[in-house]
Protein: Glutamate-1-semialdehyde 2,1-aminomutase
Amino acid sequence: MSFNETFFQRAQITTPGGVNSPVRAFRSVGGTPRFIKKAEGAYIWDADDKQYIDYIGSWGPAILGHAHPEVIAAVQHAVTQGLSFGAPTEAEILMAEEICKLVPSIEQVRLVSSGTEATMSALRLARGATKRDKIIKFEGCYHGHADSLLVKAGSGLLTFGNPTSSGVPADFTKHTLVLDYNDCAQLESAFQQFGSEIACVIVEPVAGNMNLIKATEAFLQTMRRLCSEHGSILIFDEVMCGFRVALGGAQALFGITPDLTALGKVIGGGLPVAAFGGKAEIMAHLAPLGGVYQAGTLSGNPVAVAAGLTTLKLIQAPDFYTQLSQQTQKLVDGFNRIGTELNIDFCADAIGGMFGIYFCKEVPTSFEQVMQANGELFKRFFHAMLDHGIYLAPSAYEAGFVSACHFDHVIETTINAARESLRQITCK
Ligand SMILES: *Cc1c(COP(=O)(O)O)cnc(C)c1O
Structure:
C-alpha cells in the first residue's frame, strides 16, 4: 500500500473522514487524497514523493508560489519574538494601514483568523448597524460556514431559505433570502418586496465556489444601487477574489464600492489571517466602540501577520498582476485550444490569477449552467491529470489558482498533460 493510502486509512480512525476540511477527502471524485509533505514554488510533493504542479495553492493563499523565501524569513523572524501576546502590536497597525491603502473602500478594518469569521462578523455588523434582520445571498456563493449562510433557496422565488447543513435550525435561516447569481430582475423584486427590512446583500463579486463564475457588471451595479436606495449594506465577500483577481480585488476591477468587504486567503500568505472592514461609520458599531460584539484570542497573531504583511508587500511589485493574469490566460487559452482540437465540450475561463474549467460547450454564467456540466468526465479528467502530475481541485465546483511561480514551462507541461488526459478519457 502507498503512504497516501496508509495515511488515509489511519487518518480515518481519529479524524472524521480522515480530513480537517471536507473537500480534501476527494469524495466528489473518488480515490485517495494525497497527503502533502512539502511545497515549493508551483510544486507540491505527496507522501509517496510524487511531484505535482499545484493549481490549488492552498485554495488561493499561495499566490507568490509556495514557501516564498521572503515570507518564510519574515515568519522565522517573527517566531523568535514570541508566538502570541493577546495584546496589540505595531505589525497589526502596519497590516491595517496596508489593507486600507490597497482597498480604498476599507476605511477601518478588523483582523480575524478565518474567512468564516470575517463574513460571519461582517453579517452581524451589518445587522447591528441597520437594526434589520433579513439578508440576501446568492445560490452557489460560499461565505464560510456560519449558520445563517448555510442556506439554499426556499420553495418559492421570494420565500426565505432552508438550511443546507443539518444542525442549523430552520429558525436561523428564515431571515436569509437566496436569489440566483447574475439575475438582476430577482434582485429588483426582492427589494421591492422587502427593501426596508434588508440588512445586507452578501456576494462573491467573482464567484469561485461554484467553479469560476464571473458576475456581470449590471448585476453588481444593480445590487449597489438597490442597497443605496434602501439603506442596506453591500458586503463584498472577497475572501477568495481579493488580491487574487487584481490588486484591490474585484471591487477595483469593476469599479464598484461596497460598504463592507471580507478578506482572507491571500492576505494571510498561508497563515491564518482574514479581515473585514469598510466605512468607518459602520465599523464604529463594533465593540469596544459600539454594541456589535466580535473578538478573537488569536486575532492579529504576530506570526500570521508577518506572513500576511510580507505577502501584501510582494504582490505590489510592478506588473505582478499583469504577469499573473497573462500566465493564467495562457493556461486557459491552451485548454480552450485542446477542446476545439479534440472536438469535445470542454472550455475554460480566467480572471486575474483564477480560472475555471468546464465540461460544457460554453463558459457558464449561472449556478444552474454549472450544475449541467458533465461531472463524470470531470472526475476522469481529474484523475488522469493527477496521474500526469497535475494537481487540480478535487471537485468540479471549485476554481483553480495560478501563482507567480507558474512560469511558461509549467503552463506548457500542464497543457500537454491536459491534451493527453482528454485523449485518454474520450478515447480520441
Ligand atoms: C474560503 C472562503 C470563505 C471561508 O474562508 P475560511 O478561511 O475557509 O473560513 C468565505 N468566503 C469565500 C468567498 C471563500 O472563498
In short: The mean pLDDT is 97.
